[in-house]
Design brief:
Blueprint (H helix, E strand, L loop, with lengths): L10 E7 L3 E5 L3 E6 L5 H14 L4 E8 L1 H9 L3 E8 L2 E9 L3 H17 L2 E6 L4 H12 L6 E6 L2
Antiparallel strand pairs: 1-2, 1-8, 2-3, 3-7, 4-6, 5-6
């Protein structure tokens, strides 16, 4: 299906993958798989690229914590959307806005700690489109850690 800007078909998704990381870009979400023990510098660079291309990108994160810790997350830029008591702790749902560097730094720290134990899957919501999807693909290709790049177009 041609688009209004030059007749090229719209990409349905772009997949960028390597042995330790896989990223699937769609117009509304970015799905990321990070392998165990992926370097913090690479994790940080991936999220920084996304934030530079779409500062409105965000991730919803569930955290089990003491009630007093909720305000610590908020003071680091996380946005509390809901919380409920779950036994001795609270289940808090936060939005991590990629526009706030402090929130992004704390998020990178938490993801790095998670990858020390297990593979991690993350969904980031954003306002993607053909140009932003291609920008991210081009920036990610400069990291030299991806062996495969595949674009799937709408029919």
């Amino acid at each position: 299906m041609p688009s209004s800007s030059g007749g090229k078909p719209e990409p349905a998704c772009i997949e960028v993958s390597g042995p330790d990381v896989s990223i699937v870009l769609t117009q509304g979400a970015i799905n990321i798989w990070l392998g165990r023990k992926l370097e913090k510098a690479l994790i940080s660079r991936i999220f920084l690229i996304i934030s530079q291309i779409d500062a409105g990108a965000e991730h919803e994160k569930e955290i089990l914590c003491r009630f007093e810790e909720i305000s610590e997350f908020e003071s680091n830029g996380y946005i509390l959307t809901s919380y409920a008591r779950k036994g001795e702790v609270y289940r808090a749902i936060f939005v991590v806005p990629f526009s706030k560097s402090q929130a992004l730094e704390r998020f990178v720290e938490s993801v790095t700690l998670e990858t020390e134990k297990e593979d991690v899957k993350i969904t980031i919501y954003w306002r993607g489109g053909r140009s932003r999807m291609n920008l991210i693909k081009d920036e990610l290709s400069r990291l030299n850690c991806f062996s495969s790049m595949n674009t799937v177009y709408r029919e």
